[in-house]
Design brief:
Mycobact_MmpL, four-stranded antiparallel sheet, Multidrug efflux transporter AcrB transmembrane fold, cell membrane, Patched family protein, alpha+beta, 25 helices
Length: 791
């Protein structure tokens, strides 16, 4: 494929465009207006159903569980004090519980030290009572007696209250809600935050740490979006400042800005017209890539225009020549970047498919805005006399000539370049094999963000556990759960789960709760409160009697863990942290044990949001890796086709593979996990990095067709677009470096991954790519013109 022939076609297109510039501008305005009007129809959300291909099954299982036991969501307050049985602390707990119950939607009941149902032995047998039913006693000895009694209950210690009485939970049990989590958390979290922020709950005597799935999900979305929007807007400002410094042209600043905003609004607007629902958490990739490409495309075109304008002084002719020199390279980068983003379609996850499609469309839209606005806007103005300063340098500036000199030095030391590149790759490749594919919440988020620090403090506390899941055991026959062997097997399962890596353990006690703790507590009460009686009775009739007596005595906790017909029960497992890969491994063991211990159960398995998202993370990361591999293959094929040379295609792939290898090696050595964010950012970096590769390789091939000499072609390319490649990379790195200021590790990772990736791609483009082209000579044999332009 002759580049000169293609460039000649783009030259004709440039002349046609300049001649009909008003028509092009009008069409662009019309398309932009129509697209923008569609924004009102656009739907963006982060619905959980979009992340699961088997969402119907997942939702059905979750709904079935909640139909039996109620909502798995709750609002929590982890309370820390010198002594949580201090009268002031107890009164605060009581008042806080009442406020939350009255003000938070879906609040159903409170579980706290002030709201307990405990069996107490009496002359007739026992009764279920709440120690603080009549309020906090004023008598110190009476309060000490109640404290001692509560701390003697094995079912409560290190579950509801710590053994040293410095920590306790206040739990707001929520009703089952029909909305999805996103909608529910917007109703639950704000009023809860208002209660927690009330000045009357601030004191040196205690510390209140709010938590709960809907509460923390709301915080996470609010904080993440705030940091994302702030850094994207700051990056946009940095882009404008850099363009001002490098381009020094109002049109060169306005066009990238209009192109970024116009491409995004138009693309999303047409998505709205077509009724395509988007995902707000994935839109970041589209925005970042649009900004980056708008800069890259603009700088390449503008610098080409300036070079020709310095030589000729003729504005419209310079515009046409710039379209000739840049048009095909820009268009081909669009095709490869679109192909790379469309590789997301291979991930098999709806939000990833959406972001792949919408980003590919936005990439093309950015190109359309740039290729229309820049020639049209730069066509207005007067011609000028050619600058005599640049007559002998073919329009090159001093900076261009310095870059050319650097290129000559690289070619002169070509084998040093090859060896240095090989050694660098050999050094980082082992690091790739050290990468762990995992999502660890603590590592991803870090502790510099206040709400994340609070959650991690809760998780590390004696009672704390931010995440949990449920193990459902359901039989066909009523009263099946009353079978002592079933209850004993539940305890065996609880003991085994307690050995798993992610299960929370407080003072040697695994945080696994079930109905067995009530049965054992009741049995102990009926047996003179002997500690050795804290067991499951062997007699089913006795188990039935215990449950019946507990119920008629006013106990309220029994049906928290068991169904009304005694066909189903569940174990609640609290987690020490959120390590996605470990959770998936733990769940595999749990499912194996459930099948072994409850072979006759009609329905047995694991449910809970944390389970779903651990599995989703694994699928998402692997889907992203698949996308990276797919995009590399697609880009390689396109490069081979474009340059009609397998060797050229492979050589051109090197600067695109280098960033991925380098990033992977650094991540492995630094112990940074490959999670859903780092995996998804790779295709974006690849999509940006491939641009300079195509421009440089295409330019070299074009000049080789003109001169028939590899060295001359490479040196000419260094001179003509070498400075542009540096400018675009510096601007993009400055934009992405803004993410390094974030308090969230996940956004910091986006920053350094992008800077390292783009920087290494530029170095590879400057060094190994031209050297290999010079050595391999993939465009054919040289002719005898020895660098002179053929006519």
């Amino acid at each position: 494929m002759k580049v000169t022939r293609i460039n000649n076609w783009f030259e004709k297109f440039g002349r046609f465009e300049v001649k009909h510039r008003w028509a092009f501008l009008l069409c662009l305005i019309v398309v932009s207006v129509v697209g923008t009007l569609g924004l009102s129809r656009l739907t963006l959300d982060n619905g959980e159903e979009d992340w699961f291909d088997d969402w119907e099954t997942t939702k059905k299982n979750q709904d079935h569980f909640e139909d039996i036991f109620g909502s798995t969501d709750s609002l929590l307050a982890h309370i820390k004090a010198d002594d949580v049985f201090d009268p002031e602390v107890l009164k605060m707990i009581d008042e806080l519980g009442d406020d939350l119950l009255q003000n938070v939607p879906y609040a159903q009941s409170i579980t706290s030290l002030m709201e307990l149902s405990l069996p107490i032995g009496t002359e007739e047998g026992f009764e279920v009572t709440s120690p603080f039913e009549d309020g906090v006693p004023s008598d110190a000895s009476e309060l000490a007696e109640k404290k001692s009694f509560i701390l003697s209950r094995q079912s409560l210690v290190n579950t509801l209250v710590s053994a040293d009485a410095t920590e306790t939970w206040l739990i707001v049990n929520l009703e089952q809600y029909s909305e999805n989590l996103t909608e529910a958390m917007e109703k639950i979290a704000p009023p809860a935050m208002k209660v927690f922020s009330d000045p009357k709950y601030k004191s040196d005597k205690w510390e209140i740490r709010p938590a709960g799935m809907s509460y923390t999900e709301y915080e996470e979305e609010a904080v993440t979006m705030n940091q994302l929007v702030t850094r994207i807007l700051t990056g946009f400002i940095v882009m404008l400042v850099c363009l001002t410094v490098f381009i020094r042209s109002l049109r060169g600043i306005v066009v990238p800005s209009i192109s970024t905003v116009g491409a995004l609004t138009t693309t999303l607007g047409f998505s709205g017209w077509l009724g395509i629902k988007g995902n707000n958490s994935m839109l970041m990739i589209t925005v970042l890539l649009s900004m980056a490409l708008a800069v890259g495309y603009s700088v390449h075109y503008i610098n080409s225009f300036k070079m020709h304008f310095r030589k000729t002084g003729k504005r419209k002719e310079s515009i046409v020549l710039s379209v000739r020199d840049s048009g095909w390279a820009l268009f081909f980068t669009v095709i490869t970047t679109m192909a790379g983003m469309l590789s997301f379609l291979a991930a098999g996850i709806k939000p990833m498919r959406w972001v792949g499609g919408i980003t590919a469309a936005a990439v093309f839209a950015v190109f359309a805005y740039i290729i229309i606005l820049l020639p049209v806007l730069y066509s207005f103005g007067k011609d000028k006399e050619p600058d005599s300063t640049f007559v002998n340098t073919q329009g090159a500036t001093k900076a261009d000539l310095r870059v050319e000199s650097m290129g000559k030095a690289i070619l002169n030391k070509k084998w040093i370049t090859v060896i240095a590149t090989a050694l660098a790759m050999a050094a980082v490749i082992p690091g790739i094999f050290k990468i762990e594919v995992n999502m660890n919440y603590s590592d991803m988020m870090g502790e510099r963000t206040p709400y994340i620090k609070r959650l991690l403090e809760i998780t590390r506390s004696q009672l704390g556990s931010q995440y949990d899941y449920e193990v459902l055991i359901e039989y066909k026959d009523e009263d099946a759960i009353k079978n002592p062997q079933v209850l004993k097997n539940m305890d065996i399962l609880a003991e085994r789960i307690g050995t798993l890596s992610q299960t929370k353990v407080s003072n040697g006690k695994p945080r696994v709760s079930s109905v067995t703790k009530i049965v054992k507590e009741m049995n102990r009460t009926l047996n003179e409160d002997r500690e050795d009686a804290y067991i499951i009775p062997d007699d089913q009739d006795l188990v039935t009697q215990i449950m019946f007596l507990y119920e008629i005595s006013g106990g309220t906790d029994l049906y928290d863990y068991i169904s009304n017909d005694f066909r189903a029960a569940y174990l609640k497992v609290e987690l020490a942290g959120y390590d996605g890969e470990e959770i998936v491994k733990n769940l595999a063991d749990v499912k194996k044990w459930v099948a072994e211990l409850f072979p006759d159960a009609e329905n047995a398995g694991v449910v809970g949001e944390v389970v779903q998202y651990a599995q989703m993370n694994r699928k998402l990361v692997r889907g992203s890796i698949k996308s990276i591999g797919t995009s590399l293959v697609i880009i390689l094929v396109l490069l081979v086709l474009a340059f009609t040379s397998v060797r050229t295609g492979f050589i051109a792939m090197i600067p695109n593979v280098v960033p991925i290898v380098l990033i992977g090696g650094i991540m492995g050595y630094a112990g940074v996990n490959l999670d859903m964010i780092t995996a998804m950012i790779m295709p974006m970096i690849l999509g940006i990095a491939v641009d300079d590769t195509i421009h440089f390789t295409n330019h070299i091939k074009y000049h080789f067709e003109l001169t028939g000499n590899y060295r001359s072609a490479i040196e000419n390319s260094y001179r003509e677009i070498g400075k542009t490649m540096i400018m675009t990379t510096v601007i993009l790195c400055a934009m992405f470096a803004i993410f390094l200021t974030s308090t969230m590790n996940v956004l910091v990772n986006i920053g350094w991954l992008s800077v390292v990736g783009l920087g290494s791609a530029l170095i590879a483009d400057y060094t190994i790519t031209p050297v290999l082209l010079y050595i391999a000579k993939p465009f054919g044999k040289e002719n005898k013109t020895n660098g002179f332009v053929r006519t």
